Amino acid sequence: MALRCYTPRVLVEVAVAAAVRGRFTYRVPSALAPGVSLGQRVAVPFGKSRRATGYVVGFPASAPDGIELRDVVEVLDPFPPFTPELVELLRWAEEYYLVPPGELLRAALPPGLNARRGEAGPARRGVEYAAPAEAAAGAAADPKALARAPAQRAVLEYLLARGRIPVEELRAAFPKGRPAVAALARRGLVRLETETPVARGALLPASAAAPVLTPAQAAALVELDAAAGTFQPFLLHGVTGSGKTEVYLQAIARARGAGKGALVLVPEIALTPQLAGRFRARFGDDVALMHSGLSDAERHAEWLRLRRGDARICVGVRSAIFAPVQDLAIIVVDEEHDPSFKQEDGPPYHARDLAVVRAKREDAVLVLGSATPSLETLENARAGRYRKLELPARVDDRPLPEVELVDLGRLRRGGVAKLPGLLAPQLSEAIARTLEASQQVILFLNRRGYETLVVCEVCGAEAQCTECAVSLTHHARRGILLCHYCGRTERMDARCPACGGVRYGVGVGTEQVEAAVRELFPAARVARLDRDVVTSADDTAAVLARFARRELDVLVGTQMVTKGHDFPGVTLVGVVLADTALALPDFRAAERTFQLLTQVAGRAGRGAEGGRVVVQTFNPRTPAIALAARHDYAAFAAGELDRRRTVGYPPFTRMMAARVEGSEDGARRSAEALAHAARPALGGEVAMLGPAPAAIERIRGRHRWHLLFRADGPKALFRVHAALARVAVRPPGGAAIRFDMDPYSMM
């Protein structure tokens, strides 16, 4: 009798794309085995579902004892979405950030890929440019020309402000603007041109020659060149306007000249679309963009170009840390201090810190750039773990703006009881002189609305959200009270619903500042930039384009006006109230205040004219404000680091948060159960803060409790987490529990 040949089925370890902890072993039928490799996306039966998406993360030698294995149903892609290097990075992130593996793997892929097969992304060819035609200026000046096409007018105004730019920049600025561009081209108001992609070996396209570097930029580039081919983290500390981006561009050009790849992480492309244009102008179609301004299909297409090696440079936001860049040689994290690099919803990873891990694993140079480095990064440089490069002066030796502090408390004590829109006489006079000189003004206040609190003068009742433990903000233009956390609105009534007494507003927001400027300077052209008036990237780009074209004199806004904009016409920046973040229950409050003031002050004086900054505050002697006014980062950082060392906060310790949400009783019981489970594991190495209600006790009807754990290093925190995880499987009262390693938000 002939012997039957039997090929044993391959075993794979799979992470299921869901918030499920653990990895699961499956058999691979022999027919599917040739198509299965590390990082592959597969369909598997899971629980009661016959088909769930999973990712192959390993190949176990044997099956777990006592488990009846099930078979992989289908291999979903012609090649693995994840490279072996990315699988290892994601496995590290899963263990460090205490998140289910499949949840993190799913978050690492573009939405378009999660919705379709890997090969189905749309193709892109060449580099497409848009430029205003000769008739464009006349059409923009004619109020009737595009009266029924506001989207076309916004795009045209942006092009007139920016000139000939890659269409990719327009896509970043106007995610839904493609039909408008096409319509403008049909009208003869816009020219569309396509250029051949840049040859892979070229350093720089001839049409986008690099400018001459300053001595400090050249010295930084020499250091970066010397480290090529090895893991070496650098802190590039440069004042605002010192040319950090040009150092990035030339360092990346050197990497591309050697046939290597590059990854650039930025906080928000939608607020600085010019950045996308600079990279595309320098490197052409070798650049792939990864950000939410693109459609799912476009993001899938960009990801696919990187995965296939058709593009070797990725510019993207936080999630681009997982982009499949081939032969990675350099990673840049621009504005590395920005809190948006920390994911707060979903898997709570920090893209900057993962950049360090990825660069180390792939022997890449890492450049962390900022005018106000985070204290964690600065301490790493001080300890010798990072090499520090300095750009101490602005390009062309333009001076940093003069900063004047206005003591609002002193004005009040001097009898100035009412300041319209919180504009002190010094700031009002500075605005008047700036407008007389035909120059532009930015006014910054990190509070939306007209009044931040509405109170009854009879019974003292505050207008509060019924779903969140916060006060409602008065938005006068819309006549409503709005919750900025859940979006709930109610009509603004002058009478108290509880007692019928008269209600009055307290506090100032950007809407009131805008109204005050319009009243004080009726001839000025004023606009506001905050989440109330710009609900999309298209709206944001339209306002910024008008300001860039100097069709606006004064721009009032929240922190949206601080993010890397370069307006040569701005010679005055007014900080309406510098104290808004200082009172928050967050150990980073002073650091964030200093960073925000420095960033917004850096918007002034970037052109040929000098700049001036007027900062209004009730706390002029607070180091975060006083030292920001002197542009003295070194003194602020030294003092803040000493304070952190004394009280035992990062960067001298590590922290883990346990966040609990549920019913009032369920959240409290779950938090107490976590504390009870943690105590035996503290071991004298870990300090536990809480359990306690969160600073905002209720959001969207769900009650919130927090526990914070602090230790010298992560190992002790992982031990505590192991004790907490047993409670988190079935928490009392059905509350949801989320762990956050290295938390950034204390709210």
Automatic annotation (TrEMBL):
Binds 2 zinc ions per subunit. Gene3D superfamilies: P-loop containing nucleotide triphosphate hydrolases, PriA, 3(prime) DNA-binding domain. Zn(2+) 1 binds at C456, C459, C496, C499. Zn(2+) 2 binds at C465, C468, C483, C486. Pfam families: DEAD, Helicase_C, PriA_3primeBD, PriA_C, Zn_ribbon_PriA. It catalyses: ATP + H2O = ADP + phosphate + H(+); Couples ATP hydrolysis with the unwinding of duplex DNA by translocating in the 3'-5' direction. NCBIfam families: priA. HAMAP family: PriA. Component of the replication restart primosome. Belongs to the helicase family. PriA subfamily. This is Replication restart protein PriA. The gene is priA.
